[in-house]
What does this fold into?
Amino acid sequence: MSLKANKIDAAIRVCDDKSLEESILWAVKRWGLPDLPPRPRNSQQQHKLCLEAFEGPLKGPGGWGHCVEDRWPRRPFADHASTIWRLSGRIPELSEIVPGGAHIPNIAIYFVTGRTDEWLNEQKSRIHQLVSTQHSDGSFHYSGKYQRGHFEDTASGYCAEKALRLLDYARITGDEQALKSGLMTLEYMKRFRTPRGAQTWEVSLHTPDILASGYLVWAYVLGYELTANSDYITQARKWALSGIPFVYLWANKPVMKYATIPVYGATNWRGPNWMGLPVQWCGLTYAYALELLASHDNALEWRKLSEGILIAAEQMQYVSGDSVGCLPDSWDLEDQCPRPYDINPCVLVNLRRRLDGDVDSVAVATDGKFRVVAPFPVDISGDKAIIGGQKGLVYQILVNGRKIIDVRSQGRDVIALGPSE
It folds into this structure.
């Protein structure tokens, strides 16, 4: 090993640790996480800015676009409609709902428009299809042009995205097959050392990837919450540490600190090379997973890291013009300017709500007998669900993955759950 420069001021750690993550933890603890950048707007201003995106550049016949540009069709996306409701208190009038639309799912709209059964039937089908592609050892395998350059046809991020979907469905419904399949993948993924393979729409399977780190953290946290297996928190911590090298923890530009590059590599093996070009939506997914981890682990100030990434994204948002309220796909650090495409701000709203202690999608409460899902905070007391609702609103709750109950909210709603079967 060598270092060469006119002047060097460095700390060098020589150790026999076999874990790169432990060295990352040592380095971050030595200097500490940097101070958070100043928030560019207060909460009310931030909510207004995000709402402008849905009322303006993203809106069109049929719904909203994933991005502003015309190549993304306008559709009645669940994630967008849920976010609009959270921001404004207004439920969009929709003749249908299309799943997805954003980088983090938000299914609240199904529960406040009487369509919980629709979501349940859609997801049953999707999860059944996903399980049918799983190998007997819990793995998932990629087939496509972006396998070139990798030594195998699977990767940590490619598997983790599937495990996350399975375990989140198990969290909401209690589905035993989804839980079993998801846990099999968690066990299989212990063989991996590098976060990669989460962006195979344009990046090689072998490329180190912060989105993979986020999926891995999220999946292992869900595994812990569903089983109380403490080893899953150890794994979640490992993968959380693996994402830190993608985060700028220093800055010599106004918008740079806590910005996140997406991969150590390039699209289509050639360009753009993503060094110095943060793609903050990838970092926001990682930050969302860190917020979940923070409730179970204190190895680092995970919420501070999560909020820093969110503030960097808020700094990058368009505050006026044709893409007002949207998040640029990437940010040019050198020129301090956004690069298209211009993405919906759903994930910014999701993460800010979680950091503020609010429900972003749906809340889940379990007590061993009942599993209750609601679009508001929920607790279980005996055979009743206690929900902090919105007075006058009609919404639905899902009980034990099967029973749907309609509720006309009184503000504080006490709902008899009936038999557990």
About this structure: Residues 363-416 form one domain.
